[in-house]
Design brief:
The complex is a heterodimer of chains A (about 300) and B (about 450). In chain A, α2 (about 40-60) packs antiparallel against α3 (about 65-90), α2 (about 40-60) packs across α8 and α3 packs across α8. Chain A is mainly α and about 300 residues long. In chain A, the strands form two sheets. A two-stranded antiparallel sheet of chain A has the order 1-4. A two-stranded antiparallel sheet of chain A has the order 2-3. Chain A has a single domain, classed as ABC transporter involved in vitamin B12 uptake, BtuC, CATH 1.10.3470. Chain A contains eleven helices and four strands. Chain B has helices at about 20-40, 55-80, 85-90, 95-100, 100-115, 125-150, 160-175, 180-200, 205-225, 230, 260-265, 270-295, 300-310, 310-315, 320-345, 355-370, 375-390, 400-415, and strands at about 40-45, 50-55, 235-240, 350. Chain B folds into two domains: about 20-85; about 95-415, ABC transporter involved in vitamin B12 uptake, BtuC, CATH 1.10.3470. Chain B is globular, with a radius of gyration of 25 Å. With about 450 residues, chain B is mainly alpha-helical. In chain B, about 65% of the residues lie in helices and about 5% in strands. The chains are: A mainly alpha (about 300), B mainly alpha (about 450). At the A-B interface, α2, α3, α4, β1 and α8 of A face α1, β1, α9, α16 and α18 of B.
């Protein structure tokens, strides 16, 4: 039972990170119907910028951890968002309205480019970061087995919940959110009604990239190792999460992320770690067979 | 802000507005500056938790300056050239020429390919690279059935390639089968893998299919990596037997029977095997091409293309979409399996390293760059994709960077691929020209 609880905590933490990345996929897919394959790389860039910002703040003498964390969060979000904006501007906007596979190929190319760009600039070796947030709590103890939740895990869960709240508020209550929802329903009609579609799409990429940067920061704190290749697997996992939850739906992305995190945690906890990716993809296939639009996706009505 | 351009404005015919170009280049340089500051300006150095920063302000400045000058230059060239080609509607001229005369280009290319080892160019290195090109041509043609004809987005094609390669390697290792006996088995096994994967997922919409196939590719790789008892894990399988020429081996001496050089009474040369492998893949690729060209005219081929264009109309006409898609999937996988077998016998060693996602992406890029459904376009794209990195050997570390940038660039420049012009396969009126399926 306690073991179960421990895996639950680990799975929730992992799931929160997947969920944050998945939102970026889901929003972009909802509006322009393309798989932004480079999104995993944006997350990786977010992780790198976080480390660099931490070290820079250390040099500048900002050593009070909460302040440093907040600053790193803002820096990482801002600079990573710039990457998200540029990727959209360079690789996707010229292809708007072109045939379905073109943006995907462009996205795969962008993903390869960004991976190698970071590898060239930062080197191929794994960057290990000393733990910045330490300590934790013991929730329960029995027969020498203790259920622990570390402060990093608490921070990840709280931060995700706060961001989700802010984010849902933006989507529901601001003019930008309204424009996004309009674009999601009908791009052409939204443009005719005076919504600046290009700007809305750009801002969607910016928002997605900012959330991915937060996930990158979390991964840095949680795992303590970062290299130029982490974006690939995280990217396809997060996309899996988005599809699992019903792509285009933001609560769905979060739910899919959590589900995927839990599946992975329990699989590695009770079975083998080697096949945890296989388990994640198998869940995806099984869910899609029975619920072809994912858990919370809207059934697509095809008009003839 | 919405007109901020890192790509550049649509230049008006003639005239070069210097002030505007400077302003836009300045904005692009600013964006570049913001992008370069964190990642180029600082480098993480040191290891094992003792990270430190190295400062490189000059990199940021050089990069920013390069973007500024580059942006200005592009704008200048655009202004000089007048409206872009696309705007003048001449884009397809070359592609049209190529496609209409595809038969002759195809024949010429095939003839050239057959003569290659005997031309002065045909040294060992060239033949080796040409063999690699042909493997990708074959994979491209195989995937073309799935992506180009049936319109199903498959991001895990490399899985079938891996199934083919491992089938041959394992059959050779456990049952002592030769290449020719194992080839059909490998094809059938790959096709079965295609059906197994396709059966549950082909009812899904395009993008779901993409991610499931991507996942399948990863699953196969993870299994190959971890199933030690059978696949030998990351160490791979070595000592895979080489193919024989009707039972004649390509060795100096053979313990059982004659070797190729002894039989024909020529002096032994290690080049023989390289050339033989080249012809082998050339013939396999041509068979693939011939098969695809023929099957396009059969009802099933027509059904694929119809399905790609409009699934609902197909259903209304009584075409079973699942079975039709499944056939495309299985046949595409089969050719992937053949190519995989060839790959295994050529390398003599395979490991999961050879079957990563990047390989799938490369094959897909070949199909899309080639103009989706155009056979000769795929061959051309394979040539470009394989030979370009070969030429760039000196820029080893920049190879993949340039590869990625080229993929983006070609898509932006020519979203429908290099040879995008496509004649309809069937036409209602007019005899002759419309009846032939274009390559």
């Amino acid at each position: 039972m306690l073991y179960f609880l421990q895996q639950l905590i680990n799975g929730l933490t992992l799931g929160m990170m997947y969920g944050l990345i998945a939102i970026g996929y889901s929003m972009v897919y909802g509006i322009i119907g393309m798989i932004n394959f480079a999104h995993g790389e944006i997350y990786m860039i977010g992780a790198f910028i976080s480390i660099i910002a931490f070290l820079l703040l250390g040099v500048l003498g900002v050593t009070w951890i909460p302040l440093a964390l907040l600053l790193v969060l803002l820096i990482a979000m801002a600079f990573t968002a710039a990457y998200g904006w540029t990727v959209e501007r360079l690789a996707y906007r010229p292809l708007r309205g072109s045939f379905r596979l073109a943006p995907l190929i462009s996205a795969i190319g962008m993903s390869i480019f960004l991976q190698n760009y970071v590898q060239l600039l930062q080197g191929a070796n794994v960057k290990a970061v000393p733990p910045i947030i330490t300590g934790g709590w013991i929730l329960a103890e029995q027969d020498g087995f203790a259920v622990r939740i570390s402060n990093v895990q608490i921070m990840i869960i709280l931060l995700t919940l706060v961001l989700m709240a802010i984010f849902s508020w933006i989507i529901a209550n601001t003019p930008l959110g309204r424009a996004q929802r309009a674009c999601e329903q009908d791009l052409k009609m939204a443009a005719l009604c005076g919504v600046n579609v290009d700007r809305t799409i750009s801002l969607t990429f910016v928002m997605g990239a900012a959330l991915a940067a937060v996930a990158g920061l979390m991964a840095t704190l949680y795992y303590g190792v970062v290299d130029f290749f982490i974006g690939f697997l995280a990217g396809i996992k997060a996309f899996t999460a988005a599809v699992l939850g019903g792509i285009g739906s933001i609560p769905g992305a979060m739910l899919g992320g959590l589900l995927l995190g839990l599946v992975e945690a329990f699989w590695s906890g009770y079975f083998t770690t080697e096949y945890k990716d296989v388990a994640a993809f198998s869940i995806l296939v099984i869910v899609l067979i029975f619920l072809p639009t994912g858990l919370l996706g809207k059934p697509e009505i095809e008009k003839v | 802000m919405s007109t901020v351009a890192t790509v550049g404005p649509r230049a008006t015919a003639g005239g070069f507005d210097l002030a505007r170009a400077l302003k836009e280049a300045g904005l692009a340089a600013f964006v570049a500056f913001v992008l370069f500051v964190p990642l180029a300006g600082f480098k993480l150095v040191g290891q094992e938790g003792q990270l430190a920063l190295e400062y490189r302000p000059h990199w940021v400045l050089i990069g920013t300056a390069a973007v500024f000058v580059g942006h200005l230059a592009i704008n200048f060239i655009r202004a000089m050239r007048g409206p872009s080609q696309r705007a003048r509607g001449e884009a397809g001229a070359m592609a049209r020429f190529f496609t209409v005369h595809a038969r002759w280009f195809g024949l010429a290319a095939a003839l050239l390919a057959f003569l290659l080892p005997f031309t002065p160019l045909g040294n060992r290195y060239v033949v080796d690279v040409a063999t690699t090109v042909l493997i990708y041509v074959m994979l491209g043609w195989g995937l073309n059935i799935v992506v180009g004809l049936a319109g199903l987005l498959d991001l895990g094609y490399v899985a079938f390639y891996a199934v083919g390669a491992y089938s041959y390697a394992l059959f050779a290792q456990w049952f002592g089968l030769g290449f020719w006996e194992a080839l059909p088995i490998a094809g059938v096994l790959a096709a079965i893998a295609g059906i197994l994967l396709g059966f549950p997922v082909l009812r899904l919409r395009g993008d779901y299919l993409a991610i499931v196939t991507l996942g399948f590719g990863e699953i196969i790789r993870v299994v190959l990596l971890n199933w030690y008892d059978v696949t030998n894990g990351p160490d791979g399988i070595s000592g895979i037997p080489r193919p024989t020429f009707f039972g004649l081996e390509f060795k100096r001496y053979s313990p059982d029977g004659m070797t190729f050089s002894q039989f024909f009474g020529i002096e032994y040369s290690s080049l023989h095997r390289v050339i033989f492998l080249y012809y082998l893949i050339l013939i396999l690729a041509l068979i693939t091409n011939w098969f695809v060209l023929r099957i396009r005219r059969l009802p099933i081929g027509r059904a694929w293309e119809a399905l790609r264009e409009d699934e609902i109309a197909c259903k209304a006409l009584g075409i079973n979409p699942t079975n039709t898609k499944l056939t495309a999937f299985a046949l595409g996988a089969m050719f992937g399996g053949f190519a995989g077998s060839f790959f295994a016998t050529r390398q003599g060693f395979i490991s999961p390293e050879s079957f990563t996602f990047i390989e799938s992406a490369t094959i897909l890029a070949i199909v899309v760059l080639g103009g989706m459904g155009s056979q000769i376009g795929v061959a051309l794209a394979a040539l470009v994709i394989v030979v370009l990195p070969e030429l760039g050997r000196e820029f080893e570390q920049f190879r993949m960077l340039l590869f990625g940038a080229a993929m983006v660039g070609i898509m932006v420049w020519r979203p429908r691929g290099l040879l995008a012009f496509r004649e309809p396969t069937v036409r209602l009126h007019g005899r002759g020209q419309g009846e032939e399926a274009p390559r």
